[in-house]
Design a protein that fits this description.
The protein is an alpha/beta fold. Helices cover 39% and strands 28% of the residues.
């Protein structure tokens, strides 16, 4: 099978093509440009470099969230547009699952953390376990949006060595030193950010398991409200509170 993979859930923009057990192409960049400027040109460049025929694609895998609201929307729109155009399914891969897959094969606990602002992280807890003739990604704690201290407490309770990765690492590096009671390390530069190749490999597995969506069914997973939605909700609650106070007088 052949699959296109996209990840624009965070600071990184990444596109890859997986064919059976081979990574045919991958284009990853983390720079100042927005994903709307990079994602489609990157896909077009890969298409040219490997003479990619979109009609031969079996599915489009995409990092489905959580992550940057704008980045997720761009990735989702790109995947949906391509899926509609070639009439192929979408494989929605949880962002944190894909990020954790960077560390395939480790015997340590894997904890990806993405900066979610407001003193929170998008995170999850993972390990790799033997499944038949391969290692499988085992989810200890599913992806969520929580305070860093909360996930650190859970890791301390597990009592095993941890590897952290993701763009939340530099944000919470000092807090790690203060609160972590178990041994931990930080993934190196080539393994510490999103990669479409990981989304593609997991996407291939999920595709074979029948975990696919039609283009019209796909939507990003945000886990929490956007800033604009939060502010609107807070404003509505404030107005409601003022009305109740007026009524009670």
């Amino acid at each position: 099978m052949k699959l296109i993979a996209l990840d624009s859930s965070g600071l990184v923009a990444s596109v890859a093509v997986i064919e059976d057990e081979l990574l045919i192409a991958e284009y990853t960049i983390q720079y100042k440009k927005t994903h709307s400027q990079t994602l489609l040109p990157m896909l077009d460049e890969i298409k040219k470099m490997i003479d990619l025929d979109f009609t031969q694609i079996d599915a489009i895998a995409v990092a489905a969230g959580p992550g940057s609201f704008t980045g997720l929307r761009i990735g989702s729109a790109t995947a949906k547009g391509l899926a509609f155009a070639i009439n192929k399914p979408i494989v929605a891969v949880p962002t944190l699952d894909g990020l954790a897959y960077n560390l395939y094969g480790t015997d340590k606990i894997v904890c990806p953390i993405m900066d979610a602002r407001r003193n929170q992280v998008y995170t999850g807890i993972y390990e790799f376990c033997k499944e038949e003739d391969k290692l499988g990604l085992h989810i200890i704690k599913e992806q969520c949006a929580v305070a860093f201290d909360e996930i650190a407490q859970k890791l301390n309770e597990l009592g095993r060595e941890v590897i952290f990765l993701g763009d939340g690492v530099p944000v919470f590096a000092e807090r790690m030193k203060e609160i972590m009671q178990v041994s931990y390390s930080l993934a190196p530069a080539h393994m510490n950010r999103q990669r479409a190749a990981c989304i593609g490999v997991l996407g291939s597995r999920y595709y074979k398991q029948g975990k696919v969506q039609k283009a019209e069914e796909h939507a990003p997973v945000y886990l929490r409200l956007s800033q604009a939605e939060r502010e609107r909700k807070e404003q509505e609650e404030k107005i409601q509170e003022e009305k109740e106070q007026e009524t009670g007088r």
